[in-house]
Amino acid sequence: MANADPLELEKFSLLAHKWWDPNSEFKPLHDINPLRLDYIDRHSPLAGKTVLDVGCGGGILSEGMAGLHANVTGIDLAEKSLQVAKLHLLESGKQVDYRKVAVEELAIEQPGHYDVVTCMEMLEHVPDPSSVIGACAKLVKPGGWVFFSTLNRNPKSYLFAVIGAEYILKLLPRGTHDYAKFIKPSELAQSCRQTGLSLDNIIGMSYNPLTQTYSLGSNTDVNYMIACRKD
Question: Does pLDDT of 110 surpass 80?
């Protein structure tokens, strides 16, 4: 529990019952899930792969990857979110192994075990992102893939991700993000290299408030994803 913010865990626990409501505070995650799934699957076809979803929350991405015939394990430290994730399996019929365990602890237990490791929208919520990145690198097999998504740190991202998303458009609850914890792509790439991961691709994610749709492209000013390979 050392690399976890109790206030962050409590924040998501209070919203846990809304994880699978596509019109709730988690609507953005539902909307971007197809984009993430396609991005991951294009780099490393998921069918038959052993996959770990770090910071899985209520299981939106985990179930999506299971739906593409991956063998998925989802881990999180928010007990209520995991309970919701497990309950939703009864409705969806998907197969996901959910565990309450820190990624650093699992890295000691299962080094080099996974073909693919995903860690989406988590790094900006933990005290030590580099510790999470290092654990993800240990968990993936040589030649395997690790995917991260997070928020860039610049005035535009503050305007769009905090002021715009939380206060104006109200896409997210106020206080969802702490701008000081946002991570520049150069910083994330450096942390990955230090753990033996090679950056293969970086892509931005943008939101159009007029059409209320998300898209992937070259603009990494606010939200972005990276794909890495284990050396």
Answer: yes
pTM: 0.93
Q: Are 33 and 57 in contact (CB under 8 A)?
A: no
In a domain, 57, yes or no: yes
**Count of domains observed in the chain:** 1
Does residue 1 lie within any of the structural domains? Answer: no
Provide the Cα torsion 78, 44, 129, 137; round to 10°.
110
Residue of 218, 223, 225, 230 whose CA lies nearest to 38: 225
Instruction: List the CATH number of the domain containing 39.
Output: 3.40.50.150
First to last CA, the chain: 29
The per-residue DSSP string of 26-65 comes to THHHHHHHHHHHHHHHHHS--TT-EEEEET-TTSHHHHHH
Range of the domain at 194: 6-230
